[in-house]
Design brief:
With about 210 residues, this protein is of the alpha/beta class. The chain is built from 6 helices and 7 strands, in the order H-E-H-E-H-E-E-H-H-H-E-E-E. It has one domain: Diaminopimelate Epimerase, Chain A, domain 1 (Roll). The strands form 2 sheets. The chain has a 5-stranded mixed beta sheet with strand order 1-2-3-4-7, with helices on both faces. Strands 5-6 form a two-stranded antiparallel sheet. A hairpin with a 2-residue loop joins strand 5 and strand 6. The protein is globular, with a radius of gyration of 20 Å.
């Protein structure tokens, strides 16, 4: 009886990692066949039209961009870490020439092609996608991905990304004067009546 109980506990502990490993494996297989893979559990994240439009754009990007949308949780085969997911997908697909992209909790993560240039347009495009003034934290994934692809097509994307970084640094370093009246944090602009979270640093390749 004790052995059966132990086996059941081990099964419950190991099942999430095993399931996630299968999802990552399926993503690698899917990306070998096309530029966009959406895990079945996330199929509602993109409409059919959004998926069709994204695939059409992704087939014509330079450098190649491969997008994987996979559910991640702590303790899974990549420990719930988006960048680790992208690293594993690159290794399994063998696509050193491509940029790998995912979106988790409204944040776009990008791993640049290897070797990476110092002024890399993929990293810069990820910065623009994250720090754009019109970005809404709970916007649709297709909107985030299209903003990234728009930025990647911009010949001045590296300069644009640097401007956004400098602006964010300036806003963070500006001291705020307290008037004794509690007001909404100016770093959280309101859009259509909803407060937005302050934009994080772009998550391209672990730094930006």
């Amino acid at each position: 009886m004790r052995r059966l109980l132990l086996a059941a506990v081990l099964l419950l502990v190991l099942w999430p990692a095993s399931a996630a490993a299968q999802e990552v494996g399926a993503a690698a297989t899917g990306l070998a066949q096309g530029p966009l893979h959406v895990d079945p559990s996330l199929r509602s994240a993109l409409t059919e039209q959004e998926r069709t439009d994204l695939v059409a754009r992704l087939r014509n990007t330079t450098p190649p961009v491969l997008v994987a949308l996979v559910p991640l949780v702590a303790g899974d085969s990549v420990d719930g870490k988006p960048r680790q997911l992208l690293t594993v997908l690159r290794r399994r697909t063998g696509r050193d020439d491509a940029a790998f992209v995912t979106v988790q909790d409204g944040i776009l993560y990008a791993e640049t092609p290897t070797p990476t240039a110092e002024e890399d347009p993929v990293r810069a495009a990820a910065t623009v996608a994250i720090l754009a003034e019109d970005r809404d934290y709970d916007e649709r994934i297709a909107t985030t991905l299209n903003r990234f692809l728009d930025a990647l097509e911009d010949p001045d994307v590296v300069a644009h990304a640097e401007e956004l970084r400098e602006r964010q640094d300036a806003e963070r370093s500006t001291p705020r004067r307290s008037s004794g009246v509690r007001r909404a944090d100016a770093s959280r602009p309101r859009v259509r009546g909803r407060a937005r979270r302050p934009p994080p640093r772009a998550a391209a390749d672990g730094r930006a």
